[in-house]
């Protein structure tokens, strides 16, 4: 089986994202048997190649779960004792999973990072695999989650303790008396004060998680209606609601996917600041659509980004976009870099945020470019996008940009001069 594992894993992972729950479960069982039977290193390479960067949320979740099994089999010592390149790719993949828009995928990613954390080489590899601007925030979040000693993915806990959730799964029910047993922290962050609101959220969740794509589309329409007619209800429960809705932003059905993106663009101005708690997972889900070959999906994703820039706190967006660029490729990476260029032109009072988040992205891109502006393994020429980002930062920072570049490796300073010349032509 070892010789065929990569091709088989790719096929099974694709089926793990099928719209049929029966096929999903069968593919997952087969992957579990495969992982337990083949050489662990082969299984890990296959799962990383076929699942970590997949657009389908369910595929990434499935790949992360089985990667955790392999990681436990191999152990930190062997994982961090391989070649420098392979280890950096592994750490970068795990950090990506630990920041995924799906809560279960994040759980598996953090569990794997936790396995590596106690190894003396881990911190060094992590610093090499992450730009400096998001290292501290990412690690603080991951270490806090590790301290919580969570032993199972959130969805499993939610299925057993559904009464502790303000948004019920479609298989469960909630009566008005159940609100009384909600933990104080949950009650404080919800607006479940009437039976009518409880029923509205139950119905919304039922539609958004339905097996039939037409019904999921009805759920998207209903969520937009609630944003128009009762935005306070959505804002008060936005984290729980968007844990479900974010899956529709990468739905396996293209019609649902596009409609969810188009509806999201309309929701953002309605929710305003209430949207900020879900900004990071939404940006992750939306930006993955920028590489879609479907013109409608791509256009809808662009519309969401532009609506975000127009109606949300641009400092928060700057951070979210900057954190995301590292994990994008092709057209998606160029589109997000272009928008970073646009929102980097802040007033002088916000310049520290620009320098903290956008500047490390520029150093990363300048240091990674080869040839005439190509990023290794990413596809596409990023020279023009990097030139626009450098031009925006130069307009904001002036001569201090070149002074900062002098402290970077020589190729970075040289590439900066080249792209600024391109920008000024």
Structure summarized in a few sentences:
It contains 24 helices and no strands. The protein is mainly alpha-helical and 425 residues long.
Tell me what you see in this structure.
The chain starts with a helix and ends with a helix. With 425 residues, the protein is an all-alpha fold. 71% of the residues lie in helices and 0% in strands. α1 crosses α4, α6 crosses α7 and α13 packs parallel to α16. It has 3 domains: 153 residues, Leucine-rich Repeat Variant (Alpha Horseshoe); 137 residues, Leucine-rich Repeat Variant; 104 residues. The protein has 24 helices and no strands.
CATH class categorisation of the largest domain: Mainly Alpha
CATH superfamily of the largest domain: Leucine-rich Repeat Variant
- The residue fraction in helices comes out at over 70%
Radius of gyration: 22 Å
How many strand segments?
0
What is the beta-strand fraction? Answer: under 5%
CATH architectural name of the largest domain: Alpha Horseshoe
Total number of domains: 3
Low-confidence sequence ranges: 159-192
Distance between the termini: 56 Å
> Structural class of the secondary structure composition?
mainly alpha
CATH-assigned fold name of the largest domain: Leucine-rich Repeat Variant
The major beta sheet can be summarized as: none
Number of helices: 24
């Amino acid at each position: 089986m070892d010789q065929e594992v990569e091709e088989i894993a790719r096929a099974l992972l694709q089926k793990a994202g099928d719209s049929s729950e029966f096929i999903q479960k069968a593919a997952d069982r087969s992957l579990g048997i495969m992982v337990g039977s083949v050489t662990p290193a082969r299984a890990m390479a296959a799962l990383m190649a076929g699942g970590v960067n997949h657009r389908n949320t369910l595929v990434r979740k499935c790949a992360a779960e089985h990667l955790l099994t392999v990681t436990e089999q191999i152990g930190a010592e062997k994982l961090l004792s391989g070649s420098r390149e392979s280890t950096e790719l592994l750490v970068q993949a795990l950090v990506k999973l630990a920041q995924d828009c799906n809560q279960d995928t994040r759980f598996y990613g953090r569990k794997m990072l936790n396995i590596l954390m106690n190894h003396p080489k881990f911190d060094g590899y992590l610093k090499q695999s992450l730009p400096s601007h998001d290292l501290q925030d990412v690690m603080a979040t991951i270490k806090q989650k590790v301290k919580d000693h969570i032993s199972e993915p959130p969805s499993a806990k939610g299925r057993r303790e559904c009464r502790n959730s303000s948004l019920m799964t479609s298989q469960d029910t909630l009566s008005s008396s159940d609100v009384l047993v909600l933990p104080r922290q949950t009650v404080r962050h919800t607006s479940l004060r009437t039976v009518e609101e409880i029923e509205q959220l139950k119905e919304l969740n039922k539609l958004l998680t339905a097996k039939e794509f037409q019904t999921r589309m009805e759920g998207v329409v209903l969520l937009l209606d609630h944003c128009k007619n009762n935005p306070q209800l959505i804002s008060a429960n936005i984290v729980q609601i968007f844990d479900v809705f974010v899956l529709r932003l990468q739905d396996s059905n293209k019609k649902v996917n596009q409609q969810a993106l188009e509806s999201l663009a309309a929701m953002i101005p309605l929710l305003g600041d209430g949207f900020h708690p879900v900004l990071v997972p939404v940006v992750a889900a939306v930006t993955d659509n920028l590489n879609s070959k479907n013109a409608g999906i791509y256009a809808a994703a662009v519309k969401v980004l532009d609506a975000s820039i127009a109606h949300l706190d641009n400092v928060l967006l700057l951070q979210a976009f900057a954190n995301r660029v590292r994990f994008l490729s092709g057209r998606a990476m160029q589109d997000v870099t272009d928008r970073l260029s646009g929102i980097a032109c802040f007033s002088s009072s916000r310049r520290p945020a620009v320098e903290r988040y956008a500047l490390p992205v520029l150093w990363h891109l300048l240091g990674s470019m080869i040839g005439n502006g190509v990023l290794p393994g990413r596809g596409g020429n990023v020279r023009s996008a990097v030139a626009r980002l450098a031009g925006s930062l130069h307009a904001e920072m002036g001569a201090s940009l070149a002074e900062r570049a002098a402290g970077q490796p020589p190729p970075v300073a040289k590439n900066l001069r080249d792209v600024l010349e391109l920008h000024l032509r």
